[in-house]
Amino acid sequence: MRLTRTDIASRIPHQGRMCLLDAVEQYDETGIVCQSHTHLLPDNPLRHAGVLGAATGVEYAAQAMALHCALVDESAPTASRGYLTSVRELELHATTLDAKQLPLRITASRLACHAGTAMYQFTIHAGDSLLVQGRLAAVLDAAALA
Fold it and tell me: From start to end of the chain, where are the E strands?
């Protein structure tokens, strides 16, 4: 099932320009593959002094992770806010996300999920080039814990 930007925004707390994902190519119980062109936009909210550093890929991966959790547990309400608890084994294979004028392919694979927390392995590619990879852990709905 392919999902659009509107479908995505209805399932994650990120809205407007901060919703960085454009489409879901596929997902199942174990992972998700998303696509984005937002890294090419000059008004991308993660740009600093006109540069979109490769480390901002962590936010793309975090949104894919949050979206996957929402898709596999459709009975859960949309999280109003969440936060990363750790970023591990982060490898930057590029300086910026927008060096290639190609869509990003963000793949996130669930390693663990329990009681509002999750851990995922991720990769971000532009075409055949691996740009960023690593592992994320997050609290998915911080408001529910307050």
Answer: 3-4, 23-27, 31-36, 83-92, 104-114, 117-126, 129-139
* pTM metric for this prediction: 0.91
DSSP 77: P
Element (H, E) at 51: none
- 91: tokens are 């490898």
Q: For 100-134, write each residue's pLDDT tens digit.
A: 999 999 999 999 987 778 899 999 999 999 999 99
- Asked whether 78 and 70 are in contact (CB, 8 A), the reply is yes
Provide the terminal-to-terminal Cα distance of the chain, rounded to the nearest Å. Answer: 34
The pLDDT tens digits of the residues spanning 53-95 come to: 999 999 999 999 999 988 987 655 555 677 889 999 999 999 9
